[in-house]
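Notebook entry, structure prediction.
Reason for the run: the old model in the group folder had no record of what sequence produced it. Starting over properly, with the input documented here first.
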Amino acid sequence: MSYTPSSSRLMKNTVLLYFRMVLLICINLYTSRIVLEALGVEDFGIYNVVGGVVIMLGFLNDSMTVSTRRYMNFELGTGNGQRLHEVFVTSLNIYFILSLLIVILGETVGLWFVLEKMIIPQERMNAALWCYHISIFTAVVDILSCPYISAIIAHEKMKSFAYIAILDAILKLLIVYLLLVFGYDRLILYAILYAVEKILIRMVYNIYCLRNFNECKYRWIYNKPLFKEMAIFAGWNMWGNFAYVCYTQGLNMMLNVFFGPVVNAARGVAVQVQGTVGNFANNFQMAITPQITKTYASGQLKETHLLVYKGSRLTFCLMLVLCLPLIVETPAVLNIWLKEVPEGSVLFLRLLLISIIVQKYSSPLATAVSSTGRIKKYETLVNGLMLTILPISYLVLYIGGAPWSVFVVYLIIVIFAFALNLYIALPMIELKLTDYYRYAIRPCIMVLLCSLLTPLLIKMLIEPSLLLSLANIVLTIISTVVLCFIFGLDDEERNIISSKIARLTKKHNR
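New structure, fully documented this time:
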């Protein structure tokens, strides 16, 4: 069976996912500000670092999520409905096992770490423990939602995905309102309300999938070869996710041990913005990932290469439009957003934004490698390199490095990992480095170099002020969008956008 990738479907799904993302960003920026204000810097830092322990355990779940999406996309590409049902049921069975493992690890090793190793004021320890136990429960709810979310994404039903996001946003606003209304310990209350919100969204995903996708109707199946195959694939992804957890949440724990919860609050603010920006790229890649896997599954290697070029270029352009104005005007953005900006947030955020541009740019290559099913070498070497962030950062802090130094280490390793990514991934999907440079790297270099001119000239020639910062943000966004259109898109993409604009203009003028 041949799968036909569609640029128009990709664009439609991307627009829907961006509608979802813009809505969530607006809600998250508002709720983050209120939550920081309501909890205070210390409790906000405690929530980030305690929740980080649970996130560390979540690498088990993340590994299985990648495996589930890969296999569902692959079977949709081959058109095997019975195999697709077996993949869904097998993945759900594995998720139940993972949930049990995370509860056991969380209530033993994780709890020991919170009690014995973390720097938490004694008077807030009880609230921190409540928050920790509730976070474990929330993680289990999230885990059991993953097969259903994977089904929606594999079927490319992004409109429904966006509608559920609206409900998610409304519930998050309700959490903020209740947090301000009730006078109970707000750290504990926030953890409880967040858990309830996750349960409700989990129920919505389940109901939608059961009504729309036949493969999501659970009946006991034990396909031993498939279970083993998916478990092995997830196991190699687990190594990659373990590395990710170590160099993200591990750094968070390390900063807590060396500097205390106030630095965790600064990192929490920076990571929240980084995560929000990164989700823009995730939403585009969520739209293109099924097409990459399905074309590879149906043997259309040339189409897979074209999608990898497209994914890399468009991801870079989207990230640059978002990140460049934030990097240039970080102090102004944080001062407008937050009443109290934790010390260190500005530099942390700038370094993290540069890092995430590089990381997200290489994600389509990682998706293509995942489509092959041969991920052992890739996961071992690339994520092994990323894992060195933790010991190098510890050494830097041990000899007296400042908190920001760990993010410099992070950025340097990310750049080396990208080079290693190219070395391993391109031969696996039979893609020449010269072609990847011509169609993916060179256009992005052109966009980057030209985009830097506007903000740098404004900074050099005009006295700084809040009004100038706002004008600089707007002009940087406009100039970067124009340059992305000129240098970052191919002829087909420019034609699609031009025709859409012309159609909308014609409709508006009637």
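Summary: The chain has 19 helices and no strands.
The old model has been moved to the deprecated folder.
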